[in-house]
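Run NAD(P)/FAD-dependent oxidoreductase through structure prediction, thanks.
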Amino acid sequence: MEVGAMTTATDRPTGGSYDVVVVGAGAAGLSAGLVLGRTRRPTAVVGAGPTRNARATQINGFLTRDGISPPDFLAMGEAELARYGVTRITDRVLAIDPAGEGGHFQVRLAGGSVLMARHILVATGLRDELPPIPGLAERWGIDVLFCPFCDGWEASDQPLGVLGGRPASVEQALLVRQWSEDIIFFPHDKDLTDAEQERLAARGVEVAPGPVARIVTDAGRLTGVELADGRLVSRQVLFTSPRRITQDGLLTALGCDLGKGGTVLVDVAGRTSVPGVWAAGNVVRDHASVIVATSMGAVAAAAVNRDMVREETAAAVEEYRRGAAVRSAE
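Sure, done. The structure for NAD(P)/FAD-dependent oxidoreductase is below.
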């Protein structure tokens, strides 16, 4: 692809060779594509399917974009990429073959295309695995929420609940307490330690013991939490901490080293242990908000470009020396 050429999100190139293929078209991936496009690098951003926050009504806490809807955020990002000639391919990456002859990776797409890339930047994010409680998934991103920094302001001073069952659940309840005085913690299937009960009591967080049977709604809104013994606890918003599963299969298949937490190990710039392979966003940092993931994508993209400049400079020096040797021999 020539620098300056443009495609839209609906175009399906049959293939192509790029300096960088970015896998993932959420906040981190689009941000990386923007930075790379502005460096005049032939770049493709590949991704299909909903983003993690697709069901949310707003993105909050993002300076200058506070309150924007996720679809509008993505649409604005894609429009900005198009201005810089970045190819946006709506497809799913099946596999990335290691760099072979010529130092290029092969990126195989579900639609049958094969892209060639000098460098790969993976920003495939994660998926949230919710407890199998009836009614919970249906309200996810609406009035069943995860991040109080993202949604706490909007839930301020309402009757709030926090669903336990995860190691960080008590900490989440203590954090949510900042936004309302009416907090009830549901331990669900976990027993609280004496220290945990003391901390909750000290912060004025009530505990409703016993397993949660279902989430109750009325007229399209969450109205309460029903316990296994039949008790119905009235609530308007429920926070929970789902199990976060990083979508790092492409990275692990390439042999990228894992850190102690089981996620792919990267340095501060997003460089993995495999030369030419980078990662950014929730695929390597499972608690990154949209603004943090956006920043990670930009940082990784700038580092990728610096690495390519070093590669190109080293090649140019070698060519220069060969030319100088020829000239001196004449």
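The chain has seven helices and 17 strands.
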